[in-house]
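INFO  loader      accepted 1 record
INFO  loader      residues=201
INFO  predictor   begin
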Amino acid sequence: MEKAGPYWTACIDELCFLWGLTEENDAEHAKAARELDLFAEQFRATFPTPSADKANAVIKFVIEFVGRQNITSASPTYHYGDWLDKVIDAATRHLQASYSGANDWTDVLDRYEGLDSVPLMTVHKSKGLEYHTIIFVGLEDTALFNFEKQTDEETAGFFVAFSRARQRALFTYCASRGDRNAIAPLYQLLDSAGVKTFEKA
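INFO  predictor   done
INFO  writer      dumping tokens
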């Protein structure tokens, strides 16, 4: 597959990290590559065609290969409560949904990854990312409900979202959904910066 190369390399690098192998060590890097090759062969034999009713088995198959303990060790958030189980459940449901209308595994994975889709995320989740255009959905009091109590922090958060855009940023507001009195200073900043306003009847 033409675009598999970068993904394959990323998988090997991630395995080295999760398994505690050194990427710079050629022998350990080669070991991860061999294990991934073997896993791919076993996966193709076990799941030759995508099927929604096997989503749980697919996720379990991958976790057994990587090692649940290795996944848990990779992030402190997985050390508490049942957060990892919730993530696994969400991944399973997302994989099931990705099967809809898919013809093969390439289609499934493209859908799972969100190819040609618009990503939705919170302001904090958007940190470090960049897009040509961002749309801030619902710039109103309820979106920044702590604005009056934590004006500096909320303003900083607003600019985190704003600065994700390389070329263009759009902000939406719906009067029937909420007010924008508390966050009026943000609208004043946008107005003073010459941001154009469009109203739809």
